[in-house]
Amino acid sequence: MIVFLSVLVLSFSGCKGIRKVKDIKVTSVKIEAISPQGLTALGVYLAVSIDNPALQIGLEDIEGALKHSGKVLGRVTVDPFIIQARSAETYHLRAVVKIGEDATLRDLLMLTDMAQLYECTLDVSAKPRLKSGLAAPITVKDIPLKKLLESN
């Protein structure tokens, strides 16, 4: 989850024609709480600090697949949110991680061990939307969590 939002911001920074978007940075991510949601999902509450010297950007349809050794452990969804223009703010976000088709709750809970989490990869898709209404879906696949977690 920590990496999920970093990936969204970093992947959108590659879009052409938008100045300073590449300078958007996730400065910190803190897990505020994790709570079970029945026997098939976990609710994750995050505090994500983002420094945005660019335009206002809304992030919608945020989804991902958390994988370990090619096996999908969980399907991740994050509530839509707006990154305010020219600001450095902390956003309080809610994400849900549902157990993957071939995984068990035990598989998902093993990710509390950082060594196991570092072996995971993440596929992410989202639809960034500018204040003007322009939007384009993006997808980034097989992102090593170790690389992203260590960069924060």
Offer a quick outline of the entry:
The protein has helices at 2-12, 105-109, 114-118, 145-151; strands spanning 25-37, 41-52, 57-68, 71-78, 81-83, 87-99, 120-130, 138-144.
Topology, element by element:
Blueprint: H1 2-12, E1 25-37, E2 41-52, E3 57-68, E4 71-78, E5 81-83, E6 87-99, H2 105-109, H3 114-118, E7 120-130, E8 138-144, H4 145-151
Antiparallel strand pairs: 1-2, 2-6, 3-4, 3-5, 3-7, 4-6, 7-8
Approximately how much helix is present in the residues?
10-25%
What is the first-to-last residue Cα distance? Answer: 13 Å
The H-and-E topology, N to C, reads as HEEEEEEHHEEH
Question: How many helices in DSSP terms?
Answer: 4
Can you tell me about this structure?
The protein is α+β, with helices and mostly antiparallel strands and 152 residues long. The chain has a single domain, classed as Immunoglobulin-like (Sandwich). It is 18% helix and 52% strand. It has 4 helices and 8 strands; from the N terminus they run H-E-E-E-E-E-E-H-H-E-E-H. Strands 1, 2, 3, 4, 5, 6, 7 and 8 form an 8-stranded antiparallel sheet that branches. A hairpin with a 2-residue loop joins strand 3 and strand 4. The longest helix has 11 residues. It is globular. The mean pLDDT is 81.
